[in-house]
């Protein structure tokens, strides 16, 4: 997979144009991020589906707390129908900084994610489901023809989430841009795959990487501040320690984001954080990072911010990925 993430901070029409451009540039999968304070990801994906022909489409990633898992499964099934079988289901525990605004930060965890996508798979297979675990369902089913088989990618970066994905899912969207992090993720996935059923088929470890590319390398690094702030705020202590990043400073960034003080949060981002959590720089610099990450990952998803100029960055990031040549 060579994918791209679009953030619904822009209008639906603008994102649809970018989706068309991404397909033309050679990306084969497109994800939209899912945060309550941006536009609805499924509305965006539906619009892109109507304007494209081949690129796969999915949330990257939805969480099972804001939307009931049965309803979420139906949304993905509807997207699959709308796109003629091109849907991909990205599901994970969600961003702690924004979930804190909804009082949901304590509900994040592995079990809700696993139960949600297992339930979705049953619904897509035409079954009716009962659930009394992290959510409740009573004889729930889809009142329309089930969709084609939809790949499930778990979005996560903790050891247990990585291992669970390796055991149960089709792939892992690992929020990482540094080869050291992907090497670690590979170790976790391989542990999970030891108990993987053969019938589940091949597994795809995808680096869901923050990328900021431009002809001007310094401008690219400056544009990386916002997404790096969110990543640093949600990073686990071992990840921060791996890169020598101050845990208190990362926590302060998270507090600023939750309070809506975004400029202050972005100002707290350090060069070390940019190096750890984003592939930022010129085409040549980003290409080197992509190659290093692909030594450990099967696939790559080019994520926010892409670059200071979105249209240019979509083309430049595709040019930087030498694995496709």
TrEMBL record:
Domain of life, per lineage: Archaea
Protein name per its UniProtKB record: 5,10-methylenetetrahydromethanopterin reductase
Family: Belongs to the mer family.
Species of the source: Halogranum rubrum
A GO biological process held by the record: one-carbon metabolic process
InterPro entries: F420-G6PD/mer, Luciferase-like_dom, Luciferase-like_sf, MeH4methanopterin_reductase
Domain Luciferase-like: 9-295
Gene name tied to this protein: mer
EC number: 1.5.98.2
Subcellular location: Cytoplasm
CDD domains: Tetrahydromethanopterin_reductase
Major localization class: cytoplasm
Cellular component per GO, a single term: cytoplasm
């Amino acid at each position: 997979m060579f994918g791209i993430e679009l953030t619904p901070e822009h209008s639906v029409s603008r994102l649809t144009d970018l989706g068309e451009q991404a397909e033309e540039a050679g990306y084969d999968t497109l994800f939209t991020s899912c945060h309550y304070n941006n536009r609805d990801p499924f509305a965006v994906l539906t619009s892109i589906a109507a304007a494209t022909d081949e690129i796969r489409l999915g949330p990257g990633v939805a969480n099972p707390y804001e939307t009931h898992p049965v309803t979420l499964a139906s949304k993905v099934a509807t997207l699959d129908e709308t796109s003629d079988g091109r849907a991909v289901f990205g599901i994970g525990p969600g961003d702690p900084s924004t979930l804190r605004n909804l009082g949901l930060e304590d509900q994040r965890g592995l079990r809700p994610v696993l139960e949600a996508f297992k339930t979705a798979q049953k619904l897509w297979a035409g079954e009716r489901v009962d659930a009394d675990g992290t959510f409740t369902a009573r004889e729930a089913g889809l009142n329309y023809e089930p969709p084609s088989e939809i790949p499930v990618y778990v979005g996560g970066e903790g050891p247990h989430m990585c291992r669970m994905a390796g055991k149960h899912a089709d792939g892992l969207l690992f929020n990482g841009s540094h080869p050291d992090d992907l090497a670690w993720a590979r170790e976790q996935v391989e542990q999970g795959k030891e108990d993987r059923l053969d019938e589940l088929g091949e597994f795809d470890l995808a680096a869901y990487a923050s990328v900021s590319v431009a002809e001007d390398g310094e401008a690219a690094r400056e544009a990386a501040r916002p997404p790096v702030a969110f990543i640093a705020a949600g990073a686990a202590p071992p990840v921060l320690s791996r890169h020598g990043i101050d845990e208190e400073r990362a926590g302060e960034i998270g507090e600023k984001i939750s309070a809506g003080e975004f400029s202050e949060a972005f100002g707290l981002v350090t060069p070390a954080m940019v190096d750890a959590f984003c592939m930022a720089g010129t085409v040549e610099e980003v290409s080197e990072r992509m190659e290093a990450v692909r030594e450990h990952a099967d696939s790559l998803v080019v994520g926010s911010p892409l670059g200071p100029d979105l249209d240019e960055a979509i083309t430049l990031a595709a040019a930087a990925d030498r694995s496709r040549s």
